[in-house]
Amino acid sequence: MESQETKTERQFAHAMEECRALFAKKLHDYGASWRILRPSSLTDQLFIKAKRIRSLEIKKVSMVGEGILPEFIALINYGIVGLIQLELGFADTVDISTDKAMELYDKHSSEALRLMLRKNHDYDEAWRNMRVSSYTDFILTKIERVKEIEDLEGETLVSEGIDANYMDIINYAVFGVIKLSEQQGS
After folding, report:
1. If pLDDT is split at 50, 70 and 90, which confidence band does 145 have?
2. How far apart are CA 84 and CA 90, in angstroms?
3. What is the distance between the alpha carbons of residues 135 and 174, in angstroms, rounded to a whole number?
4. Cα–Cα distances in Å, from 127 out to 1, 22, 95, 161?
């Protein structure tokens, strides 16, 4: 029988494979056009996605036919874009190849997995007993924290940095993907 920890790692990896496949397709279609996003614009993009999830959770109806699951996937991918942007800084033009973008994606995806495994050990799979709507609220809280840190130009007194908040956004969004996939039986 598979342990809960092993199951979580497998489910996390599967969710990230889905996200990576979409990221690669979008890279094919658009290139690394996101390289021009300044930090505040990226934060606003994360905010839009999380706000839409919350709106759909409350209204229970989508007028454009897309559900919550694709928005969690977008949060994961934009969270990884955020980590890449923190590492490289933003650019005025697309300045990296598809291969380099995928290499950086894989690096930050692996870091998110390692962080999730450490936290999951310490929190003993608590996320499994949470509601998906709580992930949404926690993500929105993390985005608000990022906005504050950006407004403070990174000069915090005791808080984790923007990168830690992006990692938490990614991990909560992965939990959302896992839970919604389980509910849909996929």
Report:
1. very high
2. 9
3. 9
4. 21, 25, 38, 23
* Contacts of residue 59, Cβ cutoff 8 Å, sequence gap at least 6: none
Q: How far apart are CA 102 and CA 43, in angstroms?
A: 21
How large is the angle between the packed helices 4-30 and 68-88, nearest 10 degrees?
Answer: 70
End-to-end Cα distance, the chain: 20
SS3 43: helix
**Strand, coil or helix: 109:** helix
The gap from C-alpha 138 to its chain's centroid, in whole angstroms, comes to: 12
* Residue 10 or 5, more confident: 10
Residue for token digits 């889905």? 18
- State pLDDT tens for residues 44-97: 999 999 999 999 999 988 777 778 999 999 999 999 999 999 999 999 999 999
pTM of the model: 0.94
